[in-house]
Structure of ATP-binding cassette domain-containing protein:
Amino acid sequence: MTLLHVDTVSRFFGGLKAVDQVSFEMESGTIMGLLGPNGSGKTTLLNLISGFLAPSSGKIIFNGRNLAGARVDKIARAGIARTFQLVRILPSLTLLENVMLPAVFGHRAHWGKEAERVAHAALQKTGLGDRANASAGDLNYIDQKRLELARALAAEPELLLLDEWLAGLNPTELQEGIRLIESLSGSGITIIMVEHIMEAVRALCPRCAVMNAGRLIADGETSTVLSDKAVIAAYLGDAEYA
Ligand SMILES: Nc1ncnc2c1ncn2[C@@H]1O[C@H](COP(=O)(O)OP(=O)(O)OP(=O)(O)O)[C@@H](O)[C@H]1O
């Protein structure tokens, strides 16, 4: 079943085409890497899908409904959650309080004990289960990233958008992170992951799409896409192919 259809979506900032007529579809339960050089429009595209920005034109059809331009809270309720490149945890709250908020305001709008159960489950999945009452402000970098992911998972999304969630991890943490995303994907969540770490893309994503200067320049089987001339040129900055 098609879960997401991004249909000729564009977003301009003044004269800059940050996202330019991008189209793709995703089947439910699949995982896709979203690649591209710095400034190519990847985060803007995630912002458009998650409602942090409205598209200048085009449709974003999720579960059959066009969500283009809808408010962030409506999109979260519809079943889309995301992580941010710079983590957005609430340092003055406990880990549990951090994940309770999306459990309440996310896809299934839980209350009371049920919200607490979902929040605990999200902490458990990300390896923070035994620290629910610790202060988020005391976490080290990897644990902040885990909490950022737990917040997205507590919203119980059907579509999870990861914006360089693996960036900055050491080699051991990276392997743990890859296993964690693998298990999420195995549990049926549909995932788009913006990622620069090719090892992770190859390990996790049978499909990847590549952006350059706002346009989608490739979309297909990962090893084919990564050996595509235009993709290599985009990464190397060769205007002839890019
Ligand atoms: N709010 C904004 N206002 C103006 N320009 C913006 C805004 N957000 C992004 N841009 C511009 O849009 C283009 C695409 O940026 P975007 O952050 O989406 O790229 P990216 O592929 O995610 O890059 P990176 O890999 O460095 O995160 C860039 O030229 C950027 O400067």
In short: The radius of gyration is 18 Å. Residues 13, 16, 18, 36, 38-44 surround adenosine-5'-triphosphate (CB under 6 Å). The longest helix spans residues 171-186.
